[in-house]
Amino acid sequence: xxxxxxxxxxxxxxxxxxxxxxxxxxxxxxxxxxxxxxxxxxxxxxxxxxxxxxxxxxxxxxxxxxxxxxxxxxxxxxxxxxxxxxxxxxxxxxxxxxxxxxxxxxxxxxxxxxxxxxxxxxxxxxxxxxxxxxxxxxxxxxxxxxxxxxxxxxxxxxxxxxxxxxxxxxxxxxxxxxxxxxxxxxxxxxxxxxxxxxxxxxxxxxxxxxxxxxxxxxxxxxxxxxxxxxxxxxxxxxxxxxxxxxxxxxxxxxxxxxxxxxxx
Amino acid sequence: xxxxxxxxxxxxxxxxxxxxxxxxxxxxxxxxxxxxxxxxxxxxxxxxxxxxxxxxxxxxxxxxxxxxxxxxxxxxxxxxxxxxxxxxxxxxxxxxxxxxxxxxxxxxxxxxxxxxxxxxxxxxxxxxxxxxxxxxxxxxxxxxxxxxxxxxxxxxxxxxxxxxxxxxxxxxxxxxxxxxxxxxxxxxxxxxxxxxxxxxxxxxxxxxxxxxxxxxxxxxxxxxxxxxxxxxxxxxxxxxxxxxxxxxxxxxxxxxxxxxxxxxxxxxxxxxxxxxxxxxxxxxxxxxxxxxxxxxxxxxxxxxxxxxxxxxxxxxxxxxxxxxxxxxxxxxxxxxxxxxxxxxxxxxxxxxxxxxxxxxxxxxxxxxxxxxxxxxxxxxxxxxxxxxxxxxxxxxxxxxxxxxxxxxxxxxxxxxxxxxxxxxxxxxxxxxxxxxxxxxxxxxxxxxxxxxxxxxxxxxxxxxxxxxxxxxxxxxxxxxxxxxxxxxxxxxxxxxxxxxxxxxxxxxxxxxxxxxxxxxxxxxxxxxxxxxxxxxxxxxxxxxxxxxxxxxxxxxxxxxxxxxxxxxxxxxxxxxxxxxxxxxxxxxxxxxxxxxxxxxxxxxxxxxxxxxxxxxxxxxxxxxxxxxxxxxxxxxxxxxxxxxxxxxxxxxx
Lengths: 264, 653
Fold this sequence. Notes:
The complex is a heterodimer. Chain A has ten helices and ten strands. Helix content of chain A is 38%, strand content 25%. In chain A, helix 3 runs parallel beside helix 6 (163-176). Chain A has a six-stranded mixed β-sheet with strand order 6-7-8-3-9-10, with helices on both faces. A four-stranded antiparallel β-sheet of chain A has the order 2-1-4-5, with helices on one face. Chain A is an alpha/beta fold. By secondary structure, chain B is of the alpha/beta class. In chain B, a hairpin with a 2-residue loop joins strand 1 and strand 2 (36-41). In chain B, the strands form seven sheets. In chain B, strands 4-3-5-6-7 form a five-stranded parallel β-sheet, with helices on both faces. Chain B is 40% helix and 22% strand. Chain B is globular and about 80 Å long. The A-B interface holds A 1-2, 5, 138-139, 142-143, 145-146, 149, 151-152, 154-155, 194, 205, 208 and B 34-36, 146, 148-149, 260-261, 263-264, 267, 626.
């Protein structure tokens, strides 16, 4: 790849010595990671390795028993998901979590909610300043619709769409927040080859166009290795590797984790 | 309004200047961008076109050079056509879904120097084949998305060319106007490559005179005015789009609307509500299928309403449209139906404002045709060819039939030779096949009569009826007539059947390959709780075979009624495991079957159909993915025997 429009910058997020357990089950043990600005960072690992837990920790959904998270230089121990959203962290879910009865357009507009400032009174009347504001948001949403090539489903209720497209709409909703950090939880799960290729293109294009920093969780090794700047591998709640794709691919522990060796 | 043949501005650039003057504030083009319809008036269009033309001129485009145009229907690409014409260059639109390899022939055959393309996808194709098209000097792209890293010197952004053009216009005042004034009616206006069912595509050159003739015929035949709205969604490389979206639009001065993307056409149709519309039968078919599927899912009351009023429409709708006398009670019921069913239905389909709609290219099923006409939508058929600048025959209002294509259009002479082949002569007759005088001589006689290659005859009302391609009309082994397309069309009128290829020339009995329609059969299967994993699996189901067999046998019964065609009833058929596809070369880009390729590729299947001892056959087929890679699929196909209606049965019955 030739030089990037948004070169990789300073650390945006760092996670230090995180441990998380549910009762006696240790989901994450002493994990440290960092993500730099404008980077595509992937977390991979076999089933139950703690990938989604890690994302939930970053996003403020789970509260780790130990460790600390620094986002944009601000340390924090506890945070609620909506606070994370306010600070510019958006995410998609492993099992699509859209408003099924609403159209694609409305789902995307819901991603703009945090950016709407006029009070509910004006919005309910759809008058004056609120109308003005909505038009601006609609413009941004239309840009995303164009970007993700989902014009044809603009007014279709999301529940009627095939799974691959729902995933794309969900990505669109996360993008509508104009996030600084985008967390993608298995964006390619359950997709066919063509849909996967499309999704890869969109992830790279988003990074290129908007400079969005991304943390990606994925099962599919091939996909991850192709599009990530850096990859971390989790296995049984531990981090076993972290580095550029080629380095990780050659790591013996990673090969063992994926091909399977006996754990005592 | 000036009569045919006396257009004073005799080229499109001249017409453009006239419209900009006479109706400068009327809309000329619309396109939906970021969810909002953007409008360009005739005077804005003129500015845009002149700037682009001057820009290309400043980059070295000269009179006589060829300019390729590649992309979906976009105002910017329509402008590029007229901009090239303004300079005196020759626009060559290409089919936008062709793979890069297919484009080489056209680009080299036409000696294309400039290409105006839509986006990254088309730019990539140009870059891929650039070293095999040495003439290609400049690629002008309209949408720069995803192209930030493209730094090839041959690439130019559309807007930047227009900026260069604006500067050029300031520095050389009057020069472009002089170029435009130099254009003549007999100059070549456009070079269209016909997809052709055999061999390499041939470039058909049409003059301004040809296209303006077609524009005027259309305008006068259907009283088109500058108030019409059309939706341009059919390929720009196809003659029809050139006549409807450029020829007639420039002659009548109406507005051409471009859809947001190829996937949104049906939504855009509804938003625009065109008054003048053209679609091949397959589009109408898709609409009808959608309506029927949704009605089947509707509640009992809605179903009852629909069925009741559709029965009324079937009884009297077409007669009302044709202005025949209908009883007062039927008129009342029909008016009620318009209120409850037809009006809302037309609104949903985006056909509320249609004054005139045409279908052509393939035969249209009588039921499909009657459905739309009974709703009060004035669909008519026309028969045309690239070589004729479209118009040969068309149905005037009030004389519409489903099985004929109407009498010759004004200004066109038609005759039928002894072998049954249709010939025509008109001011629309093409100039020549590009750099191919032998082919021109073979098709067009000294005195301008053109052979269509279609077999047909006039019925006793003077309407032309087309049966098949002359070369495809064959004889069974007992020397009775075999017209494959006629049978194929009859089969394709069933919603469950998408493509058919019939065999029978020189054989004892007729057979067929059939492609099911995945949507219609899939829906049918769903209703029956029949699980399937995909096209191949669904095609192999016994239940589906039973379903299709019923269709085939009803066509057989139909054929048995015709003395000449009785012997070509289908005796055996099989369901193909893959859809016939233009990417695999099995269909043309306009979805016509390429028989020679099918014969070659599926030889073993044909042999099995004619070997009564076999009831199944193994086949391996090559498929081409959308990105050009190839793969193979294997399948074991069952062969079905069908009942044929024989004379003894008929006598007994």
